[in-house]
Here is the input.
Amino acid sequence: MTAKRAKTAKSSVSKLFVLDTNVLMHDPQSLFRFEEHDIYVPMMTLEELDANKKGMSEVARNARQTSRLLDEIVTGAEHNMARGIDLSGPSRKLATGHLFVQTEAINGILPISLPTAKADNQIIGVVMYLGQKFPERPVILVSKDINMRIKARALGLEAQDYFNDKVLEDTDLLYTGTRELPADFWESHGKGLESWKKDSRTYYRIKGPLCPDMLVNEFVWQEGAQPLQAWVKVGAGKTAELETLIDFSHARNAVWGITARNREQNFALNLLMNPDIDFVTLLGQAGTGKTLLTLAAALTQTLETKLFSEVIITRVTVPVGEDIGFLPGTEEEKMTPWMGALEDNLDVLNKPADTPTGAPGASAGHAGTYGGDWGRAATMDLIRSRIKIKSLNFMRGRTFMNKFLIIDEAQNLTPKQMKTLITRAGPGTKVVCLGNIAQIDTPYLTEGSSGLTYVVDRFKGWAHSGHVTLQRGERSRLADHAAEVL
Here is the structure.
C-alpha cells in the first residue's frame, strides 16, 4: 500500500516545460517529445512563430508546420485550455502529458533591469510566474538560445537545451568506420579459421569475441610483421567474414593518377570505387583529402569506366564571413563562388603527368602526357562538361539516375535536409557526403545534431553503405602544423 502511494505521489509531480520559439522552429515535433511531462507555450512564442512564418527558409517552414500542429491540437479542445489539452491523441501515444497555452496576462514579475519589450524577457517572465504559481512542480525553460538560458539561470530559474534532436551526446562516440585489431587477434579468433581466394581477394571466416561487434563494411587493420587491411563482409553475429582490400596506395591501382597516401585514404578509395556501395560518408579535418579522393573516383567511374553518366556536386551555401549579396547569372554561375574547393581539386587532378604514356596510372587525367597545355585544356573542358554544380534550393522533387552525387560541407545540413537530398537517388546513383563536424556554420546545429552525424549513425551496418573518418592531413607540413597549434 505504501509503495503504491509513493508511486502515485511520484508520478503526480510531472515537470512543466516552457518552450522557447527557437525549439519549435528547430523541430516542430518537439511538442510530442516530452513524454509524460506537460508543456507550456507562452503567448510571446506564438507571436514569434507568426513573425517568422513567411519565406522559403527551413526556419519559416518549421514555423508554419508548428502552427499547423498547434491548430490540430487546439481545435475542438478550446474549453480545456486552462486545464491543459491531453497530447496522447494528437501524438498517437508518443506523449502522455498536457499542452498549456498562455490564457492570461502576466505582468510585473520581471526585475526592473530586464526590459519587457524584449520577447526573450517576456518568456522568462512567464517561467518566473509559473514557478510562483506551481511551487511544488519543477518548471523548466527549454531553449536553444545560450544567452537566454544564462539569463534564466542568473534569475534562479532552471533552463535546459533541447536535447531530443541529438543523435549522440558525445561525438567522440561517433562510429569511425575503422577498427584496430588487437595483437592477439589471430590467437583468439583463429579457432576453426576458414580461408579462401576469389577474384584476387582473400577471404577469412573467423569466430571469436569481437565478431558480434563487427559491423558490415567496417574496416579492420593490424600493423606488425604480417600487416592486414580488410573489411567486414558479414558481421554482427557469432562468425564474421573478412575480405582483403585493393591496395590503392600502389601506382598500378591509381585512381585518375591519385594514390592513397595513408591507411584511411585507402579505406575511402575502396568504398568510393566499389559499385556495390551506394552511400559513402567521409569525415575529416581540412586537408585530409576528402574532396580530392571523391572527385578522382567520380571522374574515373564517369569518364573511364562509364559507370555513371555525370557528376553532380552540391554544397550548403553558408558563408564563413559576411554574405556577399545577390549574384548574377544562372544557377551554375551563382554557385561558382562556393565551388573554389572544386576548382582547386580539379587543378590537382588535371596536372601534367610525371609518368610516361602507357605506364601504370597514366590516364585521361594526365593531360600533359598527350600534348601539353592544349591537351590539358581539352581534358579540362571534357571534365567540366560532365560535372554539374547544383544548388540545394532546387533539389526537391528531383530524381537522379546513374549519377555520382557529391554533397560537400554536409555538416551544415539538418537531418531533415539530409533526408531530402539522399532520397533524390534513383537507380544506379551513388551518393557521397563529405564534411567536418568541427566546422558547423548553421545556427542551432551542433556536432551532436548535425545531419552528417545523423546519417553516419543511422547507416552504419547497412550492406550498401560505408563510412571512414580520415585522420591524417595530407595538404602540406604548414597546414598540418597550423591545424595542430592554432
Observations:
- Residues 171-244 form one domain.
- The chain has three domains: 13-160, 171-244, 253-485.
